[in-house]
Structure formats: structure tokens, C-alpha cells
Request: fold
Amino acid sequence: ESLNCNTCSVGITSVCLIGSTTTCSTSEHNCYSGQAVFNISSIKRKGCLPTNVYTTSTSGILGAGYTISQTCCSTNLCNGAGSVQLPLTALVAIWSTFA
Reply:
């Protein structure tokens, strides 16, 4: 039986703006939750992965530091809650603060 995972293609801070649930392919046995933190803001992603990965790395680019972390799990919908669907006007307002 295939695994079901939460997905998040666009997430800012702790809120997933565009997300849903998905049924993973037969070669994907793990759900993942990943986050990239840049100073005071962060970007989140969720989905399916073929291998169980736990990583954390810290680096910098053009003088700005960032940390990327990723965790995996292997039970249905184990990678956190689903998304909060926001109206388009709210998305534009949030996006304009980062632009």
C-alpha cells in the first residue's frame, strides 16, 4: 500500500501557503519536511522521498547565512499538518513584505 504525505510547495515561516496531501509513488517510502532559514525568515517544503534522510547544514551566500534542515518519517501523514489556505489578497500582502 502506498504512503500518504502532506505536501507544501510554498511555505513561509510556519505557514504552508500552497499545500495538500498526496499519495507517494511505490518507490517513495518516506515523507519529508524541509526548512531553509535565512536570518529571520524561512521557507518550508513537504512531500515524498525514496530514502530516509535527516540532514542539517549551515552555510552562507553573498554574506547572508542560512541553515537547511530536513527530516523524514514513514507513516501516513507523519510530516506535519496540512496547509492553511489563504485568500489571494492575503498571499499578495505576505509576498509583498518579502519582495
In short: Residues 4-98 form a domain with the CD59 fold (CATH 2.10.60.10). The chain has a mean pLDDT of 79. The beta strands are 4-12, 15-23, 30-38, 41-49, 55-61, 64-73. The chain has one domain: 4-98.
